[in-house]
Amino acid sequence: MHRSRTVRQLFILSGLTICGLSDGFIFGQMSGMVDALRGKEIGISLNDSDISWIASTVNATCIFGFVLAGIVTEKVGRRGAIAVLSVPMILTWIMLYFATSFTIFVASRIIVGISYGGVILLTYITTAEYTTAKQRAMCLTIVTAVGPSIGTALGHVLSILMHWRTVALMGIIPTTLSAVLPFFWVESPSWLASKGRFEESMAAYRELHGRSESTELELKLLVNFEKIKQNEFTPNKKLYFSMLEKIILALKQAYFWKISLLVIVITVYRVAGGRILYNTLAITMLHEMTGNSNILMSTLLVDGFIVTGSIIPVFLFRKMKTRTILFLFGLTSNIVLIVLSACLYYIPKENMYYAWVCSLLLAFYFIIAYSGPYAVLEILLSELYPLELKSFCTFLYGSFAGFETFLSVKLAPSMFVSMGYHGVFLLNASIVFLCLGYLWYYLPETKGRSLQEIELYFRNGKFDNDLILEQCESDDLVA
Fold it and tell me: Which pTM value belongs to this model?
């Protein structure tokens, strides 16, 4: 029984990791494609403005993916929503293979943006809901960092070794797996509980985690907390509040605004830290920073450090607290970015060591940033949303994050020209310092806490789940 449960957990984790790899492959392939298009590929007539729109459209249209994800997951659950939203991405890879005009390029980016936006947020939410408090940090790191970084690295390297159209066809493989594998998972226990399907929720939870003392306590907290909230939403004990009524009720609560400000600061940090920008334009940046057209070794170096940096947190979360990792590695990576900015400004390009110094510093930045802040921020985005408002919060904060990322990628080329790479890196580092300052004062330690305990913290100002358990002491869980 234990062995079959472990196999089931690994199968779900592998499927979610493939979803992350597929999402990362989008940006890795696009980085190589953008660099090739800037080189004026034969048969394609595009100017710098066209290419800028192609590179940034994904991050703008993902906003609509957040809306669609919220609607679909309310109807068909977490696993069904991931499968449904992965299907259009298969079409976009085929579109890219045959694309020769600006219209087709942008159309493919619009569709993939909508699908990507929905899938990436659903993988964050689903991973958090499928895991226990002890497993969550490690599993989220694998799904949201290791998977996407391997996908991005594959996209970068293959785009250097092969034509970007061939790489686009290869993207069909992980995307198809993302659409098929979810049908073999059990449904999310948290989603089932939020729909009042408590017996199914308990059965799914025990199928995933068994019946230990700690998992039974988490399950009891999940079910009882959802029962209390649904009783609050249903004065006659039969009819549920509409989503609009839940939102209005949440807007009147101080805890909702505490969470909102934290999530906004986290998304600003992700953008300023270059989580998407550097992956999208990595090949072009290395080409322009080093002045070397043969960038395979530099790309392997940087991507190798990214993948390594993504794997390191899997071990760090076992030994260190979340806040310690965030602030220690966040400050260190920011200092490296400032040093890189200084080197770009003061060291002449003619220097024989210039290219390798810049490449190494960028690589060190990635390994430190992926080891700490990137991993922690992804985890926090999956932990902070209240369960009954996850669809709304996914849309609201995801739209804000998508708009931020769109602006960063769209404006990056012109900013690199007007401010230089050194100026952009220095500006980003300054914004990150401000974000770290806010998080230092207002971010709680979430390691080892269940999603319900974290929500209770923002409601009550402390980690204390005794109140919920006392209120439902008479409720017996159905076997």
Answer: 0.77
